[in-house]
Design brief:
Order of helices and strands: EHEEEEHEEEEHEEE
Radius of gyration: 16 Å
Strand content: 35-45%
Largest sheet: 8 strands, mixed
CATH architecture: Roll
């Protein structure tokens, strides 16, 4: 059974302690994530690992080199007790059209937001996405991202740990599936507490993160 969702852009693994999570990922997999960049003004930075194809894993947490932001950091990293896969993104080349299409199917992905960051080599990446504030509270319904004319993160030579499996649980899977269909994607869902599980191929064999 194929459990890789259509149009997957990236998974978001959020953590309150970025250095510790990167060290743990490296220890478990034998692969060191690449430095992504800083989100200026938001108080976060990220590291990236390719998942094969055009998908990647984003590990995001507080940036110790930035002053505290004026508002909450993205993905609620400050309130997490530890690392957690909090949501995922699907890629589109026409964000406004994708939003309009989803709305006609009964799901509103919310307003859009423009963001940017610089890579370690100084390249400016700019993208638009649907605002997480309006997203489904479970995090199981992906947000939409449009990289426009920017270089996609996977084009920068990331270390790769192929995504072998992605599944999730929810108290009411049947309530989530129509929202995924409205976005022209899917996710292998079973009944249970809200959460993700993904397995990647590594030099040390398959490793599962839950």
């Amino acid at each position: 059974m194929n459990t890789i969702p259509a149009h997957l852009d990236h998974l978001v693994l959020a953590t309150p302690d970025l250095a510790a999570t990167i060290a743990d990922f490296t220890r478990r997999t034998g692969v060191t994530p690449a430095v992504g960049g800083t989100h200026v003004g938001l108080g976060t930075r990220n590291y990236l690992v390719g998942l094969g194809g055009a998908g990647y894993l984003e590990i995001i947490g507080p940036d110790p080199e930035q002053c505290g932001p004026s508002g909450p950091r993205p993905f609620g990293v400050d309130g997490l007790p530890g690392p957690r896969t909090v949501t995922w993104a699907i890629r589109t080349t026409d964000l406004d059209a994708a939003i309009a299409s989803a709305r006609t199917r009964g799901y509103d992905p919310g307003p859009t937001r423009a963001m940017s960051r610089r890579t370690p080599d100084g390249t400016l990446l700019e993208w638009r996405l649907t605002d997480g504030v309006a997203a489904h509270p479970s995090g199981l319904v992906p947000f939409l991202i449009d990289w426009g004319t920017s270089r996609h993160p996977t084009a920068g030579g990331l270390p790769v740990t192929p995504l072998l499996r992605l599944t999730a649980t929810a108290p009411d899977p049947d309530g989530i599936r129509p929202l995924l269909a409205a976005l022209d994607t899917g996710l292998a869902l079973d009944e249970g507490p809200v959460g993700f599980s993904f397995t990647i191929g590594t030099p040390r064999g398959p490793v599962t993160f839950t």
